[in-house]
Structures
1.
Amino acid sequence: MGAGRANVGDMAKGYEPGPIEDKWYAKWMEDGIFNADPNQNKPPFSIVIPPPNVTGSLHLGHALDNTLQDILCRAKRMQGFKVLWMPGTDHAGIATQNVVERSLMKDGISRHELGREAFVERVWAWKEEYGSRIIGQLKKLGASCDWDRERFTMDEGLSRAVRKVFVDLYNKDLIYRGKYLINWCPRCLTALSDLEVEHKELEGKFYSVLYRFADGGEGEGITVMTTRPETILGDTAIAVHPRDERNRHLVGRRVSVPITGRVIPVIEDNMVDPEFGTGAVKITPAHDPNDFLVGSRHGLESIQVIDAHGVMSDEAGAYKGLDRLEARDAIADELKTLGLLLSADGRKHSVGHCYRCGTIIEPYLSEQWFVRAKPLAETDIAAVKAGAIRFVPEQWTQTYYQWMENIRDWCISRQLWWGHRIPAWYCADCGKVIVSLETPAACKCGRTNLRQDEDVLDTWFSSALWPFSTMGWPDDTDALRAFYPTSVLVTGFDIIFFWVARMIMMGMEFMEREPFRDVYIHALVRDEHGRKMSKSRGNVIDPLVIIDKYGADALRLTLTALTLQGRDIFMSENRVETYRFFLNKLWNASRFALMNLEDSPGDIAPLCGEDEPHLRLHDRWIAVRVSNVTSEMTRLLDGYFFGEAARLMYDFVWNELCDWYLEMSKPALRGGEGPARKNTSQKVIYQVFRDVLKLLHPIIPFVTEELWDAFAFGGGIIGRGEWPVAKSYPGAETVEYDMAFLQNIVRAIRNLRAEVKLPPQKTAPLMSLRLKDQAKTALISENSDMIKMLAKVDELELSALGAPKPAKSIATVTGDWELFFPVGSLMDVGREITRFEDELKKLDAEMKKVAGKLGNENFIAKAPPEVVEKERAALAEGEARKRRIEENLEGLRR
RNA sequence: GCGGGCAUAGCUCAGCUGGCUAGAGCACAUGGGUCACAACCAUGGGGUCCGGGGUUCAAGUCCCUGUGCCCGCACCA
């Protein structure tokens, strides 16, 4: 490794990633190149990883997310930044608790049998054993995190940060506790925040139910509509809108609740939509969020008829013990027999489900802790408006504002055992609540009968602190000083609210600075048909399988190339193959280069210099191109244009470096142009590969490291190398223009060859090229050996435009040159005549367009002069071309 | 209801602040065992840029409108 030039023979089998990737990752770790040093005298660049769940296994979303972060970090390291990529994992409250519970269930043990302490111990044991699996998988992907700094949301330091934040917010009255109707998962037996509820459209029934008057007054009763008849048992009022002409007269009357017979009042409340249904609504404060508000406004009683398990409670009378959904049908049946069920029509409505286990959530009345979000959100909106934080792509800013502006209080308590326990204690004697950093010894009332709150905090509470808690906050650390605020956060849009918004919230509150300057939101990885990947669909592509089969570089390159701002990624194994071919191409091109480099040939500087006598057009050209690609690549990475960056390199390496430059270098490398040319050519190739490998390294680190080593470029690891510098070569534009001219001639010859179906290995005896421009004649004649080789021609005859053309020949004509291929009896002349006639027709149409444009006064007056000039030239050129085609036709007809 | 996105070749998509003959990859067709590479090379066919209006000298690009698809949030008695 690193000692000298590789044995080229070993490379002949093509690129095989497996052993190479493992070897280099180990070397990188050994050399500590990922380690961040806050005290280095360099500009900082930092990223915190979106901490994967400890229960997690690497999926394509992670692979994408971390590939992009890795690209940025590796590029920035080479660009001279001190880089911190902070890694770690999230304890993932519900998810982890569920996983461990399930594994206990296999042995027939429930967590309640174990008890809280023993259960939490089990979870820690599970975490120690399996929790680092995803870290190993990130390493396989090539992630260049500073692993020495790996953190866990429940490790000691982070737990301290969590406590401090909770206590401070409580003291500022930004955290409060209260009895509210919250989202409850009857399976997980915990409260959920609004975000943790997933709404799905379900087919339900819309029941019309008659509530008979119970006050002896006129009429039969009031009809109300409901999708949840089981909640009828908990009704404590009927409400109508105060200005509803249709129902106003009902206010103040009394009706009896079906089945229970409870007599309830008719009240008025603005919440009712008078247009909807009958305009009368049954009010169940204990089981519906809107009804809860109505209930508290009117001081209505709350009757809980459904318990925490989703089972009908004591209050449900005969229905006690029935599951809520079973009770729904049973109660509908009873209403029917009572003659109170007027109708039951099908109706689609959206129903909330637990985002973890999919159980239908239940609005449930209980005592919970909340973060008062509104006052915090104001600062956070201002931070984005002021430009301190920038979303990329920009459209996500809207999404962020919309949520922040309509934010509701965040329910942060969870009835789980795995997580950060809420630092609140209750005095059994005086009932006082004590919120404190340390476990209090006694209550203010002097007694010591204290009990800590049983609940833990929402997982997202601790992840909200991640950008500063991982760097040692609340202590004042070198890392915080050097690396906070972080440079960019890279994540998917699905956690903008869960995580991004809340990090901003906590960062602004506790660091008084934004946690990151840019938020790069990438797309979702879908299957090749654009469907979400899911286990149940069976369309999940496992990145680890892909890595095994094609290598991490192939996966990284594929994901990167498919990453376009604002577009989802449609992924298939087939696409990975395409990009794997590129790695092989790069491998073979390098192999070719190495075969032709004896020793380190040294540098030519500048590479495009005028004073280097042995540089030819294509040498200068590739130097110019490398330079332009360098500045383009730098710009694209800085702007998070990952897909464009990957494709820029792909196209450059394949279509320019391999297809043209290396081909054109062959005569020199084989010694046909003498020792000086050979040496010059070697030097150019050496330098070109050195820069190209560096530019590719952030995207495909493994193969470039291996090739770097094979070339023996020196300076150790490629990642330690400096990012190439774009140079401005004098005359660069001319070089590119000349090269394009030359390429066009070669392509034209190849086309003519194909036209007469000349087999590729056969050389064409003669091509006649007429050039308009003297300078071009010199250019072509200097490079005619090159052209002859690339296009397989024996003789290339040069003359000025207008020279007599050869008989029985086919031609390609442009304004600058005409190319003739005397074909004699090689081809079907009649067919060729038709081709020219077609071309003439096309040309006519085009010229009409241009002529029309030039005939337009407005165009002449208002368009920029260079555009008008261009059009004039095009017209002149077209006319010349037309004449030549006509002549050509004549020539063939003769 | 509020907000956002997308519509370009058979498929997946580029086309940036309007200005070259609208491009690429895959697929397809033809030819090729040429000494880096068949995981390759060369060449070719294929487009009413979703419909309709407008702005402009000029629209795939900007504006309006219609249609179709997708996503998020809220509501859903």
Note: The longest helix of chain A spans residues 865-893.
2.
Amino acid sequence: MQELYSPREIEAAAQAEWNQTNAFQVSETPDQETFYCLSMFPYPSGKLHMGHVRNYTIGDVIARYQRMQGKNVLQPMGWDAFGMPAENAAMNNKVAPAKWTYDNIDYMRTQLKSLGLAIDWSREFATCTPQYYRWEQWLFTRLFKKGVIYRKNGTVNWDPVDQTVLANEQVIDGKGWRSGAVIEKREIPMYYFRITDYAEELLSSLDDLPGWPEQVKTMQRNWIGKSVGMEVQFPYDQASIGEQGTLKVFTTRPDTLLGATYVAVAAEHSLATQAASGNPKLQTFIEECKRGGVAEADIATQEKKGMPTGLFVRHPLTDEKLPVWVANYVLMSYGDGAVMAVPAHDERDFAFATQYDLPIKPVVRTSAGDHTPAPWNEAYAEKGTLINSDEFNGMDFASAFSAMGEVLKQKELGNARTQFRLRDWGISRQRYWGCPIPIVHCDTCGDVPVPEDQLPVVLPEDVVPDGAGSPLARMPEFYECTCPTCGSPAKRETDTMDTFVESSWYFARYASPHYEHGMVDPKAANHWLPVDQYIGGIEHAILHLLYARFFHKLMRDEGLTDSSEPFRNLLTQGMVIAETYYRLGENGSKSWFNPADVVVERDAKGKIIAARLGSDGQPVEIGGIEKMSKSKNNGVDPQSMIDQYGADTCRLFMMFASPPDMSLEWSDTGVEGAHRFLRRVWRLANQHSQNSPPPRLDKTSLSDDQKAIRRAIHLAIKQATQDIGQNHKFNTAIAQVMTLMNVLEKAPQQSNQDCALLQEGLETVALLLAPITPHISHALWQALGNQDPVISAPWPLLDEAALVQDRLELVIQVNGKLRGHIEMDADASREDVEAAARENENVLRFTEGLTIRKVIVVPGKLVNIVAN
RNA sequence: GCCUCGAUGGCGGAAUUGGUAGACGCGGCGGAUUCAAAAUCCGUUUCUGGUGACAGAGUGGGAGUUCGAUUCUCCCUCGAGGCACCA
């Protein structure tokens, strides 16, 4: 064993051995329990960032732990390779997105390998290859024929200067990020997945996922947003609208129907369009509503505005004339693009009616009474007894709901209906670097899916986009084709798919990544799926995870897999954050400095009070702790950390600094601390290896001090097993191993028993750290005299007998305040404990002159004496 | 605006789920070793008062339940993630 801990050599040696033995390559072994451990695959953005390192370390710890439990562990890796950054890089550097992407993958693969992850690299793939996306296209055509995919108009951000569609991210304060032009909403035809057909199942099967964080399930439930309500039709007022028909709205509060004093429609609604034709002012207003982006956060925070259309509808029960307004807060994409407004019992309607002087009519008796004077009071929205509602007066919500439903049904003006907040998933993107949508547009036959034997529709890879729309739309050699059905000249669809589609099924492809006869090999898929442990950022809690669940059900319904949910257990990891430093420029702009270039100053207590730039010694401002990002220049390059300290130190620090689901604050000194710990482990093992090999430990003849040492060993086993295996709290597992090391370092090494005990302790340290710091554990395990590598060793077993204590220290409280400690035999009776507590000097002092009312004894823990 | 989550020493965090608040690590301070430094080791470190034994306060703020609250309930403040074309 080398005297000094030298991570570079140790890590290279361990990785070489794993490579040579194909240690992590797995196949379907029928008699062994499987464990599929999956971390969200990376987008190949250029180089690894700390968020990746954290994600893949967490996954690797779990995978290696499960392997030590004797399971057949699959841990794959691949690349989510389509996406916008490749196009942006192309525009900036005049490189084809394909080349940029493949280069990034090559570099990042090397980086990942230096982390020493227990990955089966033989299963690696990138989603931008035809071998992968052809099956996505295949599924698309199947679903299109089934009607699960359909075409309709959708609203997008339109940049009128660059003449292109922008992503929400590219719209900043309502303006295009490159052109600065005011963005407009525009309707274009798009393909949609009917995810709403699966809304009910996506909602109900969340209950079958006990291994998911409650937080994520709640977010998904709210996102799907099931509401039971009523569809109500307001007949057109023929004098104003001039035709027969009804305006359809959806409401969850049909009990307030008699309180409806106006209706509001979205700017894109057909009634709005009709009214605007003879009304230039309204026309202008509608144009104004179309200004700005489509992001819901922007729409929801903008000022509520409206304008009357001059059209009227009739109240379905009273036949009263109600004005039709256009309002910018009504979303065309939710429900029917129209709402009935009940200002007395809805906050938004109340604000709107107050602003535009519309009537407010209370129809529910709430805890605030029968009237609804301004300002708005939350109680107005409560359910209660109906008033001012004719024959419905006195009813509660439930009876009003059914009574109204009955009347509306008879009039054929309404029905009970369940509405979801979830909308169908639009997947058309007017971009180049994505999976081509396999559709041919034929004048005679319409939208024709590309037949299976003509798949894949290959994306040309030598194209450099210029930011003015998709280059595919300008490539006749791509879009000119013949109709697969009738053979006449036709046009190929030039839109590509949302990149969320690729990431919605990659976990299934890993089961049979090179299978050429289908999307997945059903045998392999059913062997490995569902994923036993999925790990990824909390930012994916809704979209990615919902789409993947949806796709899994689509694949199930295609007979590709038997399971209904893709991820049995989910761990959502927090962000990696770091301190930011900046200087103000003359124009008030901030220039940011990387923490690596900054030196901090501390006060007498060690609190950071100031910071200076290392290069010029001048002060910089401390900007607060934020998510590591390019824009704030507070990213720490994982590569430089690995080069300096080794992968094990990096992994240890990341797992120790905080539990995986919380944000992790980067700390250079914390990394040094982790390294220091590994050096201490190495030093003790080296010292121990100088002694002659110890005999077996004789557990029956341990001294009290030796018992205490052995107790520390098994406490560490207990804690680490719980923390790694069940709770995924790696930080406390490591803390317990550190505590064990503190004990072992002080342990004597004289007798054979001492050495045998130290041998047990060091082997335990090596095993417990093996999932976290696999390289040093690999070397230690060998140095401790073991033949088989540590990756094949079983996880250590807890000896409960080692934890037993004869004497316990109990806490004594008076009125809940700590007043002393007593040591008692572990099996002391309640009475003995109480008696001992009553005699305690401090207890007597604090109960002097008081009467003891009650004594609470918690066995093995404390005694609380209640006195007054 | 809506949905979800979070807040504990100088810092990251711990607390067996209602039972000793601050494990473990970082930083600070004091000391040892050293010609000196690095590295390493030992001690100390929530705050306030006190030489000290000790006492009081203390888990973002306010109220409540309880013998006992970081933990449960209600209200508030601040921060983070998501909001459907970033991935």
Note: Chain A has 26 helices and 35 strands.
